[in-house]
Amino acid sequence: MLAALTPEELTALGLSLKVSLWATLASLPLGLLAAYALARWRFPGHGLLNGLVHLPLILPPVVTGYLLLLAFGRQGWIGAPLWDWFGVTFAFRWTGAALAAAVMAFPLMVRAIRLAIEAVDPKLEQAAATLGAARPVVFLTVTLPLILPGIIAGAVLAFAKAMGEFGATITFVANIPGQTQTLPTAIYSFLQVPGGEAAAWRLVLISVAVALLALALSEWLSRRVAARIAGR
Amino acid sequence: MTLEIRLSHQFPGFRLEVELTAPPGLTCLFGSSGSGKTTVINAVAGLLKPDRADILLDGQPIHQLPPHKRGIGYVFQDARLFPHLTVLGNLTYAARIRRRAPKDLDRTVALLGIGALLDRRPGALSGGERQRVAIGRALLSEPRLILMDEPLAALDEARKAEILPHIETLRDVLGLPILYVSHALPEVARLATTIAVLDAGRLVAQGPAARLLSDPETASLLGLADAGAILSARIAAQEADGLTRVETGAGPLWLPRLTGAPGDPVRLRIAAQDVMLATDRPVGLSALNILSARILSLRPADATGMLVQLDLAGQPLLARVTQRSAQALGLTPGREVFAIVKSVAMARDGESAPEARG
Fold first, then answer.
1. Does the structure's ipTM exceed the value 0.85?
2. pLDDT of res. B81
3. Residue A130 to residue B93, Cβ atoms within 8 A
4. Cα distance between residue B34 and residue B14, in whole Å
5. A228 contacts in B (CB within 8 Å)?
6. How far is B278 from chain A (nearest CA, A)?
7. What are the distances in angstroms from CA B215 to CA B135, B311, B316?
8. Tens digit of pLDDT for each residue in B28-54?
9. Which residue ranges form the domains of chain B, and what is each CATH number?
C-alpha cells in the first residue's frame, strides 16, 4: 500500500507520524502532572486548571490555532522572547505543527490518565508509606505501575488525535508541503485541485487505518488497567 | 519496647482525649465503632495528624516523623496488598525500597504458612490468606511496633480460626508492642495481654487483660453477655477417655483433649453466663466441672440479672445469675458456694511470655 504512494504523499505521512510522536512524547510529562494534580490535589484554581485543560476540546480549532499564533508567533508574547533569546520559533515549522497537535490532544490524554489515577485506592499508597516508602518512592513503586496501562492508553489516544489534527495546525503553521503539511492538510490540498481525488483517497484510507488501530490498542490497554488493579 | 501515647483531637461532635501505655505484648484497644479506636492507631502510624500528640516509642518521640520513618508495621482490616505485585513481591517490598535483602524471609513465610502462595497475585488469594500475607509484609519491614486495625473483622469464623494462632505466636515471640484495635470480645479475651477500653473518645479503663476481664465493673463496659474470667491453670493429666484434666488450684476441671504435656500452663476463659451457682455440692448432675468458691461481691448487671464475683483459691471467677435466684439462694458476700462450669474456652497461655522477653 505504501509503495503506491507518491513521494509527496509519503512525505506527508512521515511528517504526520513525526509530528504526532513528538506531540505525544513531549506533552506526556505535563499531562501526567496535570492529571495527578486534578485527581489528587485540592487547591485554589482546581476548577480553573480543569477548564483550561479541557478548553481545546470545546473551542473551535481555528480559534485555538489563532491563539497559538498570537502567543507563539515570531511577534507573540511567548514567541518573541523565544526567538530573541534562543533563536527558537514554532511559526511555520513542523515543531509548530507538533505544538498545535499536542495542545489539541492534551484534554484526551489528561482525561485517560486521570481516570487511571482515580481508580488507584489511596489506601494502597498509605500502606506503602507505613512500609517505609517516602512520597516519591510510593509514586514510583505503587502509583505509577498501577496507572501505566492508563498512561499508555492516554498516549495512544493523544497520538491518534494528533494524527488527525487539522484546524489549529493549518491556522498556526499553514500548509507547506515538506514543512507543515500533515495527512489531513495534504488531503485538503489534494481535494482543492482537479484530479486529486485518487491521492486523497489513499491518504483517507491510511488515516482510517491509523485511527482504528489506535482505538483498538487503547481499548485493550484500558481493560489491562482494570485487571491489574483487581490484582489478577 | 514500650509505646506511650498522649493525644487529643477535636472532631465535629466529639473530642478524643487519650493517654495510654502499651507494654510489650498485645494491647487491645477495645470499643464500639465511633469510639475513636482507629483514630488513635492512625495517629500512631502518622496517617492522621491530631491536634496534639505525644507518641513515644521506648522514650523516643516519633510523632514528629512522617509515616515512612516511624518504623511501624501496620496490618489493615482490608489487607491492602499491592495488586500489581506477587505475594513474594509484597513480602519483600519494604526490603526492596531500602535496597537490601529481606531479613528472616524464610522464617516469616514458614511462621505464617504462606510458602505455597509466593508466586500468586493478591487477587487469587482467599481473605484469610491475604491477611496472613499482610501480616508477613508488615513483619518483614522490620518494625519496632505493630499496629493491627481489626485484622479479623472482614473474615468468617473459619478464617479467623486460621489466623488467630499466628497472631498469638507473634505476641509471644516478637517482644514488640502490638496495638490491636477490635470490638470483638472473644478475640480480645484470647489475644490481649493488656486492654484499654475506649468510649466516645475517652479511655474508661485500662490494665492487664486478666484483671479487666474478670472485674465486674469493667465487665459491663466490655459488654455484659461476654463478661467472664481468665483462669490460669496447668495440665494435670491426659485421661484415657479423651478428656484432659486441668488443675486450677480450686479443684480439677475436665476439658475435651487439649494439646500439651502435664505441667504445661494454660489460660482458660470462663464466661459468666456459663457458670451456675449452688449452695450445696450438687449430686446427680451430669456436669463434670464443679469448683468450690467464695462470693466476693454481687452487683446488678441489668434489669433481671446479677453479676457475682467469686474467689477461686485466689483467682477470680464471674457468674451471671438472675436476681430472683440470688434472692432465693440467699447469695451474699462471704458465702461459700459451688460453681458449676458448663463450658470452658481455651485462651492459650502467653500472658507472661512477652514480658519475660521484652
1. no
2. 95
3. no
4. 10
5. 83-84
6. 54
7. 32, 12, 8
8. 999 888 888 888 999 999 998 889 989
9. 3-214 (3.40.50.300), 228-346 (2.40.50.100)
